[in-house]
Amino acid sequence: MSLNKVFMKRGILNYLIFFGILFTNIINPNKSIALIQENIDIPKVVSYRSASCDCCKKWDNHLRDNGLEVVDNIVEDVSAIKNQYQIPNNLRSCHSAQIVSYTIEGHVPIESINKLFREKPTINGIAVPIMPLSSVGM
User: What confidence tens digit (pLDDT) does each residue in 3-26 have?
Assistant: First the structure.
């Protein structure tokens, strides 16, 4: 078999695999994400948001879809929570959450939360400042 035919067969196979994965993620994005999650013991998430913020509710649901227990607290003044957890102004977003001693600020994806609990660094928390359009819940 010539070298060109081998590369062509591999190229077609790679395209089929790529589009198969892409199609699976389009059909059922939540399940495909959940299937690759590691089995990490993450305690209850205590989330704080305003009643008017739909993207925060979507972020809570993203965590639930990935097997986390989320307590959704709707508060009148989210900035009071941010002050309580001493979140710097340049890292603030629309909602805050607490998982044990870690503060989670903004639309932090499940992969980052998993990494946080897998590595357990000596930090106060993690943040996705502002509200990036491509972030979870947006």
Answer: 455 444 554 544 434 434 434 444
CA-to-CA separations, 11 to 1, 3, 19, 42, in angstroms, rounded: 15, 12, 12, 41
pTM over 0.85: no
Burial category of 26 from C-beta neighbours within 10 Å (exposed 0-12, middle 13-18, buried 19 and up): exposed
Cβ neighbour number for residue 98 with a 10 Å cutoff:
20
For residue 87, give both structure tokens.
């979140």
**Position 1: which residue type?**
M
Domain boundaries 39-128, CATH class = alpha beta
HSE, side-chain direction, 13 A CA sphere, residue 135? 19
Q: Which residues pair with 104 in a beta bridge?
A: 97, 126
Q: What are phi and psi of 122, to 5 degrees?
A: -90, 80
| Other Cβ atoms closer than 10 A to 63 | 24
For residues 125 and 86, the answer to whether their CB atoms sit within 8 Å is: no
Residue 40 vs residue 58, higher pLDDT? 58
Alpha-carbon Rg for the chain, nearest whole angstrom, is: 19
